[in-house]
Write a structure and sequence with these properties.
This protein has a domain of 161 residues: Sandwich (Jelly Rolls), CATH 2.60.120. Helix content is 22%, strand content 22%. The chain has 18 helices and 33 strands. The strands form 8 sheets. Strands 1, 2, 3, 5, 6, 7, 8 and 21 form an 8-stranded mixed β-sheet that branches. Strands 22, 23, 25, 26, 28, 31 and 33 form a 7-stranded mixed β-sheet that branches. The chain has a 5-stranded antiparallel β-sheet with strand order 4-12-13-11-15. β6 and β7 form a beta hairpin. This is FAD dependent oxidoreductase. It comes from Polystyrenella longa. GO terms for molecular function: 4 iron, 4 sulfur cluster binding; metal ion binding; oxidoreductase activity.
Amino acid sequence: MATRFFLSNGPRRLLTLSVIIPLLVAHTIQAAEELPVQKTDLLIVGGTESGCAAAVQAARMGVKSITIVNDIEWLGGQFTAESLVAIDENRPPSGYGNGVPFPRAGIFKELMDRIEAINTEKFGHPRPGNTHVITTALPSDAERAFRELLEPGVKSGQIRIISHQYPVKVHVEDNENTLRLTGVDFASSESKTPTLRIDADVVVDATDWGDVIRLSGAGYEYGPDLKQKYGEPLAPENREDYPLTDMNPITYNMLIEETDEYQPIPKPASYDIRNYTKNNYPRDPAYIYGARRIVDHYGFPDIEHPDVILLCFAPCDYPLDILPKAVVDALEATEQGASQKNIVEMNREQRQIVFEDAKQHSLGYLYYLQTAVHDEMPDKTHSFRRFKLSDDFGTKDQLPPKPYIRESIRLHTMHMLKQQETTGYGNDSLNFADCMFHDGVACFQFEYDFHPTKRVFLDKGNPAGPWQNAFRKGRTWGPPYSGLSLFPARSLIPENMRGLLGAQKNLGYTSIVSSAVRLHDQCMAIGQGVGALAAVAIQNNRELHAIPYQSDMMEQIWVSLCTNNEGYEPAMLWPWRDLEPEHPAFVAVNQLSIRKLLPLDPVEVAFQADQPAEESWKQELLKISQDHFDATELSLPEGKFTRGELATYWWDVVRLLDFGFPHQQPGDQDGDEIADAQDPLPFTTGISSWPEWRPDPSEDGLPDNLASLETLVHQFNFGGPNTAPVANFTLDQGETYSDARGYGWDQSLRDQHRIRGLSLESLKETFIFTRSHATWEYALPTGKYQITFSVGDSSHEQEGQNVTVEGKSALEQISTRRGRFKEVSLPVEVTDGLLTVELGAPKSTTNTCLNWLRIEQVK
C-alpha cells in the first residue's frame, strides 16, 4: 500500500514521497516533521449550512466523533457568512410569492423554526421582513440558530468545531489502484504552514470551492458543459462563446441599516458610475424597498428596530469569466497564468484578489444609490443615503466575511445529475421529474437559474475601463424550471475516490443542474442526506460506493432521515406538494413513496392524505406490494380509510418485510442493456421513471404526429413576440387580418398572449386568448380540409372555452385542467375563400386560450 497526497497549489496528478520535499519548498508549505495525527470518525471540512446539517444528522444517528473544521468563525454559509438573509427556498414555477412547491421539513425546518423564534423574541414577529421570500433574519441571529442546532452534539462530545483552519494537503492511500482519502492537513487562516492533521473514516467536502476534492485528485469539472457531453437541452453547442471560466457569478451582499443622517459612504477608489447606469435590473431602484427589506418597521409599526435592507441584486453580481485589468495584473503577479484560471482552480491568495475587487464593485453600487439615485429622487423619504453599512458582521469593512457563492467544483460522481433527468415529466415543471431515483436522499425544485455570467467592457472593450454584467444565451434566470425532483446518493460519491463525499455545492451534477440546486433549504437537505449516508457507512463498515445498490443500507438512510423521533422534524423523501411533516401520515407516505410502494404517476403531485381511499387506489396499492414482495397473502383491511390512514396502516404491514432492490444481473441490474454506471435508473427499465405511464395524447397540448407533406397546408403557433420559433409553424402574434399576410384577426390581440415557459415545448407554453369573442381568418381556396387545434394553459385551469370553425361548434363551454389541454380535429368545407375560426363567445367572461392550429387538405 502506497501513501500519496496532494498540495493546494500543485498539479492534480498524484505525487509520490520521492518528489514531495522539493515541491513543499516550491509552494512555501513547510512541514519538516510529521504532524501528530488526530482521529475522528467523520471529518467535515467547511462550516457551511450543508456541513452543519451533515454533522447534526450524523450525531443524531450515533456517530461518536464528528469534527467540523471551518476557515472562519461563523457557521452557516449562505444564511450567515455570505449574508443571503432573505432566505431562499425551493420555489414552484409560479415564482416568488411566499410559496414553496412542497413544505419545509427536516433539519431545515428545525433551523427555520429557531430563526423565527429568535425573530419573535427580538422583533415581536417571526417574519419581520418585507421581501419576495418567506423568512428573513439578521446574519448574526441566523448564526446563533446554527449554534443552537449543533449544541446538543457539542455538549454530548460527539461534535467538535475547529475554526480558522483551512485544508492545505490531503493523505490518500493507493491499495491496488483503489484510492482512499484518509486524512487532511490544515493550516491557520493566517499561515500556509500545516499545523493540524486529522484522519477520518469519511471526509465530507462542504467547503466553498471544493478544496478537499481538488487536493485529493478526485475527478471534478467546472465551467459550462457543452451539449455533446451530457445532451442537455439548454447546454451550449460550442466552447467559443462559453469559456471554462464562465460560472454563476459571485456577489458581495451588503446589509444596510437605517439612520437619521443623510451621509453616503466614502467614494470607492475604483468607482465609475458607468458600471451601474447600464444595468436594467431593477429598473427602478425603489423596487429594492419592497424586495429585500430584512427588517421592516414601517410595515410592522410595533418593531422598534431600524429598517434593514439586503442589497443583493444583479448590479452587484460579479462575473468570473473575464476579469478587469487591475485584477488580472494582481493575479499574474502571484503566478503566471493565474488570471486565466477558473476560480475553483485558484489558491486562497488569488481568490482574495478577486474578492476584494468584487467588494469594491458592490460598494460602488451602494455609493451609486446614495448619490446618483438620491439626487434624482423627487421624494427623499426613502433615500438610500439614510442608510449605513450594518455592523452585524463585526468585520473591519462592514461587509460579510465571504461573497455569496452560487457555483463551485462539480465532483465527478457515480452518477452526474443532468437537466433532462430533473425536468418534469413531459417537459412540465409542475410534474414529478422524469427520473425519480431509487437512491434519493433529498428533494428539490427550482428554476435553472443563472445570474449574469458575462462581463462586457463598455469602453471599446478596454479591460481597464467600466463594465457591465450580461447574460449568455441559455444561461439566464428561469424559466424553465426543474420538476419536483430527488437528489440521488450516487451524486454525492466520487467515482474514483473512496472515503470522500461531496456537499454544499461540490456535488455530482452538471452546470445547468447546479443552477437549480443552490438554495438554502436544498443545501441543508442534501447536507442532511450526506450525514445519513456517512453515518450508515461508518456504523456498518460499508464502502460508500456500495451503499446506493444495497437496499438494506438505503433503508437505514431513509428511516434515519424520515422518522417520528420526538423533537426532530422528519425529512422529506418524496416531494409531495401537500403533505406537512406534522401530518400523522407524513412518515408512512414518504417511506412508501421512496420505495415505490404507493400508486404513483408523474402528474398527480398532491397526495390528498385526508381524502377517501378509492377502491381502485386501494387495489393498486395492494397489487404493487404483492408483486414486489411476491406475497399474494398480503391483504387490505376492511372498512373505510382516508389515503393517509391506509398508508399509515400499510407502512406498518410492509416495513418489516425484506424490501430488496430487484436485482437481475451484475452490471445491468434491470437488464435494459444500459450499464449501471451510466444508468440513471438501474432498477427501472429505460431512462424514465414512468415507462408504463402515458398521458392521454388528446390532452398533452402537442400534435400527435407530423403532418403529411402531401396534405399539409399550414401550421400556426399562437403567442407573443418573444415566443421561441417552432419548426414548420408560423407565429401568429394577434395582429389584425391583412391581405398581404393572408391571415389575422378581426381585432388586435397583440396584448392578449402568454408565454408560460414551464417546459421547452413552445407549442403548449404559448397561447393567444380572448375573454369575449374574436374571429381569426386564413385565406384558403375552396375545398375540404381537416382542422386540428389545441386550447388550454400549462399553468392554470381555464373554464368555459369555446371554439367554432366554419360555423361548426368545435368546443362549447369546455374546461381544461392546469397543464391539460383539449385537442380537437374536425373536417370542414371552405366555400368563400376564407377559413374562419371564432374564439370565445359573445358576452363570455372566461378565457379561451388557443395554442396552435393545423390545416390539412382532404383529398
